[in-house]
Each structure stands twice: as structure tokens, then as C-alpha cells.
Amino acid sequence: MPESTLDIQIKTLPHQPGVYQYFDADDRLIYVGKAKDIKKRVSSYFTKHHDYGKTRVLVKNIASVKHIVVETENDALLLENNLIKKYKPKYNVLLKDDKSYPWICIKKERFPRVFPTRRVIKDGSEYFGPYTSMKTVKTLLGLIKGLYQLRTCNYDLSEAKIEAGKYKVCLEYHLGNCKGACEGYETEDEYHANIIAIRELLKGNFKDSLQQFRIQMKRHAEAMQFEDAQKIKEKLEVLENYQAKSTIINPKISNVDVFSIVSDESYAYVNFLQLSYGSIIRSHTLELKKKLQETDVQLLELAITEIRQRFNSNSKEIYVPFQVNLGDEIKVTIPKLGDKKSILELSIRNAKYFRMDKLKQVKLVDPDRHANRIMAQMKADLRLSEEPRHIECFDNSNIQGTNPVAACVVFKNGKPSKKDYRHFNIKTVEGPDDFASMEEVVYRRYKRLLDEDQPLPQLIIIDGGKGQLSSSLKSLDVLGLRGKIAIIGIAKRLEELFYPDDPIPLYLDKKSETLKIIQQLRNEAHRFGIEHHRNRRSKGALTTELENISGVGEQTIIDLMKQFKTVKRIANAKLDELEAVVGVSRANKVYNYYHKE
């Protein structure tokens, strides 16, 4: 049989770093990837068995392969990122954030203006940013305006026009916000000294400006110009206050990018902190939608490339939580302790808060998406064959074998379904036998659901370890449900999850949403069971007390409880009140029992 065009294309691929592109039968680009060795990477798609369904569908749809060889892995990363942004292939990670960000522009002109803009024009002007919010830009510009007197007019302040007296000072000059360069009251050198200081401020370097202001303040004080010295002192306080708010742990940490990632089944969130002279000068979190179960390493490498391009970062060193391959030009540091570790933890915290905010918004705006994400996460974490849309959890309650009861709580789509909760009084077990009680309750619950043709859950959770789980399995065996419903036991002490026929328990991350839902189920079952147990004990205790009264039978007790509700009210009732309910003879017996003195 002759080889297909695709087979020939794969065989002729080079063993070089670069980017590969998959096209479908309609010649549409459906996937872009990077690799150290293009041939090995592409061949693996067609020789490996892929467990994830979307990857199998991708491979099925590949009709042709194209490639681009590059010099280094870093070049491959950049090219892959640019192609994904440009063509948005169906099976690639989706970069969610495409808005335009604000910049601070220092205009290329004789007396440069400093202003915010969202348009970068290549006319020789300097642009600082982009910033993640206009609020940050306004804060910085407010700081600059408070420290330096700059012009805001858009006049062409050429030397010839100023000498010709073409312009007159405006209100800004009279308010003290501008020194009147338009009428020659300020020289170009004086103005540019301020621009140099502003440039350093925008880079996060406050040291030079602070030093310069201290020199000026001292000079004014020595010349007995105390009003001018006071104005400089006020500027120093403004700058020191701003620096204190933005300084991180160690001023020596300079010109470093920090990246961290938090991910779930469907999305990843990558936080970026840019440090300069010990200050955070930028923070941004990028949301990525997974398409082919990409690993955190793959996602972080892609996000770092995208963010550094987007924010025009040239830092030679980055801090990350694990090793990533970005080429030889960038130094990758994985902090283990001290200030570097603290700043990485701050980045992780920012990513987590961003994710939490997103999830809260999704809960409000699109509750179905939230439920779908939780269900997909639980399916993956608990190694289930289907999503646990309907979960039931059982718990036993007894104290020294008295009034043994059990509770069954039901969650649907990750939320309590209280109308489906059920209490059970243990009927066939004598004494405190949790294993036998669990066996009875599980049998009764699912025998009834089968008899009434009710839907069965996808997951059963047993509050207890291996013993309770084994007892529950006996009931499922009798009912023929073994293997049809997933069942796990949760042990209280270490939150171990036990599976049938598996001696090694599963331990979930203590912060995982799956474990939190299982704990919520277990706690709800415990609460619901204890509530029923207490009610039974209370009723038993009350009934026993009234039964101690000689000549008072069951019907008398029922009549009294219906009228007075509690034994305390019966004990405090007047004789005539009791007579009205149970007659003179029995009323006297009850009254005398509680008023023996």
C-alpha cells in the first residue's frame, strides 16, 4: 500500500528545534506547537496512545504538517506564541486577554510633555508600560505632577518661536504647576534634568530623585530660603511615602520578573510581578483556557513568552516555582528561602486571588459553567469513569449503642439537595455495631431506589474507613450494584480516601475543591445524623419520665404532650389545666408527682 502524503511529510521532518503546524483537510490551521526536535515531537502524536479524547480527535483531523526551523528554543517559543495569537488555532491554549493597556508617554519634543495614552506611535517618543490599570497610571502621573513642574500645553516650543515672543504663560504658570518655558523662564537643560528624574521614577528608581531633593533642600536652608526648603521637604515626604508603599522586602532585588501559575481542570492563571529597585512596578494575571490537557510547565512557558512580549520586558532573570526552558538568554531561578521565596509566594497568592474572583463571578453569571468545572475536576481527582453529578453520603450516629440511627445526604451538581436527605432508624442491629448498621442502611436505601425505579447516584461516600466500606460493598453485591456505582470511604483522621480492593488510600491536596466538597458532604451527613439522634434520645428521655408516674398510660402521655408540647410545661402546669386535658383522677396523679413537697 503506497504511503500517504502525511506519512511522507512526517518522515522528512528535521531533527531541529522549531515550530510545527497541523492543518485539516480544508487546509485550516488547527494546532501550533514547539519542540526541541520537530521530528520526534510530531511522530509521538501518531505513535502514542492518547487517553485524552480531544487529543485523539486532533490527531484524527490532521491532514498535513508544516514546520519552521529556528536557531534556539527561545525563538521557537516566541514564534509559537505569535502564531497562536495571529491564527487562534482550534486546539491551542486560548489567551483570554486582548484589551489595549495604558502607557505613559514622554513625548519626543524640545520640552517633552508626559501624558497617558493607549496608542503607541513610533515617532521616537519614549513609552513606559503598558500598565495593567489606568488607576496606576493616574497615581504615577499625580506623583510626577506633585514633584516636578512640567508643561501641559501642546505648543511647538522651538527656540525661534520662544525668542520671537509668540506665546504667553497660561494659568498653569500662575498656579505654580509650570515654570513658563514658553516665555523662556526655564532653560532646556533645567527642564531635561526633570525629565531624566521622571524617567528613573517610572523605572522604579527613587534613589536619585530622593538624593537630588535632599541636596536642593539643604541648599535652600543654607541660603535662608526656608519657604523653598519647606516645599522641597514636602516633595520628599510625598516621594518617601510612595516608595514605602511600593517597596518590597529587599531593595537589592532589581530588574527581575516573577511568574507563578495556579490551574484547575479547564483554566490556568499565570501571575506576573515585575520588580525594579526593590519595588513592584507591575502586576498582571493572565487567564489561559486549556484545550489538550496541557501541563503547568507548557502553560507557564507559553504565558512567560506572551507576557514578556506584551509588557516589553527585557529582564535577564526570572523567578518561577519550577524549572522552565526559555533558552540560554534568560536566567531561571527557583527560590527556596528568604526574600526571593517571599516574592514568589506573593505572586502565587495573587494568582489564587485572581482565580477566586473569577470563580465567584462565574458562579453569579454562569452557574452551569461553575458546576461543569467542579464535576470535571472531581471526575479527574477521584479517578471516576463519569462525572459525579449525583452523590450520596452515609454516616452512623449512636452513643453507647442507644438509639442507633444513620443519615444519608444528597448533593446534586456539587450542591446540597436537602429534599432528598433521608434518616434511618437501625432495625436489625443490636448494640453499637457501625459495620452492620452501615450494611443495613446502604441495603435499605438502594433496595428502595431500585423498587421505586428512582435514579441511582454516580458516587457513594461512606463516612469511615475500610471496615464501613467493606460492609457497604456487601449490600451492593446483594443488590447487583457492585461496579455500577462508584463507592469510596473517607477516614476522619488523615482524610484518607479508600477504594474497593485497593489497600493504598488516596490523599488529595488539602486545598483541593474535590476534598472540600467531600468534607462538606461528610460534615453535612454527620450534622443531619446527630440532629436525628438527639431528637430520638430527647423523646426517649421525656417519655421515660412520664412513664414513671403510676397510673399514667401511653394515651395520657400522648394527650399531655399534644397540649403542652414539653415535659417542663407539664410539670409547671396548674391542676385545673391538667384536669381540662386528662380528667380529675389522672391530673391529680401527674400534679402530685411533680409537687411531692
UniProtKB/TrEMBL annotation:
Principal location: cytoplasm
Keyword DNA repair: yes
Subcellular location: Cytoplasm
InterPro entries hit by this protein: GIY-YIG_endonuc, GIY-YIG_endonuc_sf, GIY-YIG_UvrC_Cho, RuvA_2-like, UVR_dom_sf, UvrABC_protein_C, UvrC, UvrC_RNase_H_dom
PROSITE patterns in the cross-refs: GIY_YIG (PS50164), UVRC (PS50165)
Residue ranges constituting the UvrC family homology region profile domain according to the UniProt record: 262-476
Similarity field: Belongs to the UvrC family.
Subunit structure: Interacts with UvrB in an incision complex.
HAMAP family recorded: UvrC (MF_00203)
Descriptive protein name: UvrABC system protein C
The organism of origin for this protein: Winogradskyella marina
UniProt gene name: uvrC
